[in-house]
Amino acid sequence: MRLPEEEDAPPPPPSGGKHYITPAGYARLRDEYQQLFSVERPAVVEVVSWAAGNGDRSENGDYLYGKKRLREIDRRLRFLGRRLRDLTVVDPRQQPDKTRTFFGASVTYVDEADKERTVTIVGEDEVDPANGLVSFVSPVARALMRTRVGDTVTLHTPRGPQEIEVLAIRYD
Length: 172
Description:
Shape: elongated
Number of strands: 7
Number of helices: 3
Helix content: 25-40%
Order of helices and strands: EHHEEEEHEE
CATH superfamily of the largest domain: Transcription elongation factor, GreA/GreB, C-terminal domain
Largest sheet: 5 strands, mixed
Strand content: 15-25%
Number of domains: 2
């Protein structure tokens, strides 16, 4: 049985499924992987092997910290390797219908308090709310999906539903 206030709630975010990313976001993750693999990891391995040659490893700070850092780097490399393999790159510039909001769109909207905001809908690995980058599974992105300029939609916030109007849509 659904409660009356739940009837207007948006559908739950997609679970599982594909992980989307813009070409710029993919390049950042790939660059991070290369930096860790080609620069940071070899430097830490060198420090650890130098520290191991200094004798007692149980009280050797360089050795202990180096091994810990090496585990962190290897964990991040494994994550990035799997993530890069599983991501689907979507180039927003290739969007055929630029009059509607889809993944990669930058949308300017105004809320009930007449505050104008601009958000860009990106993948989960690219989120940066301070710079207006929101995940495609976020409430604001889900409310804006498939809208056109001039459309008014309901955004479900912790303070309750709020009407927002789409002012502009662009694909950079």
